[in-house]
Specification:
Layout (H helix, E strand, L loop, with lengths): L1 H17 L2 H5 L3 H6 L3 E4 L1 H7 L1 H38 L5 H55 L3 E4 L13 H11 L12 H5 L11
Parallel strand pairs: 1-2
Length: 207
């Protein structure tokens, strides 16, 4: 009996080996992945690796650079003004000096408020841009899901474990770059305080 089983096994293996190699070659890892009802995606990687997301990050960094450069300029000018005011202290009446010191303190507080607004504006623009990104990208992700034949796409970081074969992050990034490129032509406006700049600090003794 065992001889019949062995013969049957050999015949089965022989038939499998004799199958056209092209049939096996046509089954790619992507095709295997498409048979699953669940796909995973790393959303943060989608944002950071897509041309659209990278453009948002670049815009945000540019605005922060503007804020930082302006802050350093203002800090240097305020420091110089404070030192000049200190040097004049011994040559002025107490009441006159107190008035100038109060004026300087008020100016510093106002400038600090404006700089805080500038940074807050930059952060709000960035968050709004990210929100717009996901709104624009959602239909693209749905199209990847539809093309795959799967039923659901979930955030990979939210599951305990998953196989790499069902991760479609690369596909989503490629599709976003193809469909959306760097994103809409109209970008969120730079905070107005950055466009206008902070007024130059002048010497209070000058007319």
């Amino acid at each position: 009996m065992w001889r019949h089983l062995l013969i049957a096994l050999l015949i089965g293996c022989s038939g499998f080996a004799a199958a056209p190699s092209g049939v096996a070659a046509q089954e790619t890892p992507d095709q295997k992945r498409l048979q699953t009802p669940v796909l995973t995606v790393r959303s943060e990687q989608v944002f950071l690796r897509s041309a659209y997301g990278q453009r948002i990050e670049s815009d945000y960094k540019s605005v922060l650079d503007v804020v930082a450069t302006e802050n350093r300029r203002i800090e240097a000018e305020l420091t110089a003004e404070e030192q000049d005011l200190t040097r004049k202290r011994d040559t002025m009446e107490h009441a006159e000096f107190s008035a100038l010191a109060q004026e300087f303190d008020t100016k510093v507080r106002e400038i600090r408020r404006e700089r805080d607004m500038a940074l807050a504006g930059a952060n709000q623009t960035y968050e709004a841009s990210r929100a717009q990104f996901w709104e624009d990208v959602r239909p693209v992700m749905v199209s990847v899901l539809a093309d795959s034949g799967a039923a659901v796409m979930v955030e990979r970081q939210s599951v305990i474990a998953s196989a790499d074969a069902i991760d479609v992050t690369d596909d989503v990034v490629a599709r976003i770059d193809e469909v959306l490129g760097e994103g809409p032509e109209l970008r969120p406006e730079m905070p107005s305080i950055l466009q206008e700049g902070t007024p130059e600090i002048t010497d209070p003794d000058k007319p």
